[in-house]
Write a structure and sequence with these properties.
CATH superfamily: HAD superfamily/HAD-like
CATH architecture: 3-Layer(aba) Sandwich
Structural class: alpha/beta
Shape: globular
Low-confidence stretches: none
Strand order of the largest sheet: 3-2-1-4-5-6
Oligomer: single chain
Mean pLDDT: 94
């Protein structure tokens, strides 16, 4: 029997906020429908929240880490869940062609969270809109849930990846969180 989910590792672009290619302007940050409600449910249930975001625009020289952090501050402001709703934010700045410790689908961030907070891996769940988010879950042996927000065909990415585990996909973030909270394991 699986353990109750105690921590969520959340993708940022396309999961929490609208996907804007190479987002560097805080004025373009827009919270997706159902995100605020889903995060409130998770926090009320005692879950810790983490963000894991690939930001290769930094490694490519398109924008700076300070600009990414400004966008994160704007996201937190718009969420209106307090000054620090996320226990930790991992920003992977590497380009896809570089060696990387954290760039998804790396499992390293999930492993660090498990070690630092004393979680079993099945008490952690990745939530994201891309196959790489769920591949991180697969590689780290955590749970995973997809949110299909329209950027890509997430179900097709999952099917093509031939994961050893199944990952449910939801149309909205709050529906994904509700499922995690009400699912009998």
């Amino acid at each position: 029997m699986a353990s109750r989910v105690k921590a969520l590792i959340l993708d940022r672009d396309g999961t929490l906020i609208s996907h804007v290619p190479y987002l560097a302007d805080p004025a373009q940050v827009m919270i997706l429908p159902g995100v605020r409600e889903g995060l409130r449910m998770a926090l009320a249930a005692g879950m810790k929240l983490f963000v894991h975001s690939n930001q290769s625009g930094v490694g490519r020289g398109f924008f700076s880490l300070k600009e990414v952090e400004a966008c994160n501050r704007r996201m937190i402001e718009l969420l209106d869940l307090g000054a620090a709703p996320f226990a930790r934010i991992c920003i992977a700045t590497e380009r896809p062609d570089e060696f990387s410790t954290y760039r998804k689908p790396s499992p390293e961030f999930a492993r660090e969270i498990a070690a630092e907070y004393g979680y079993a891996l099945d008490e952690i769940c990745y939530v994201g809109d891309r196959g790489s988010d769920l591949e991180s879950a697969e590689r780290a042996a955590t749970r995973g849930v997809g949110v299909s927000t329209g950027l890509d065909d997430l179900q097709a990415e999952i099917d093509a990846a031939k994961f050893t585990h199944s990952y449910p996909v939801f149309a909205r973030f709050d529906a994904a969180i509700f499922s995690l909270l009400t699912r009998a394991d």
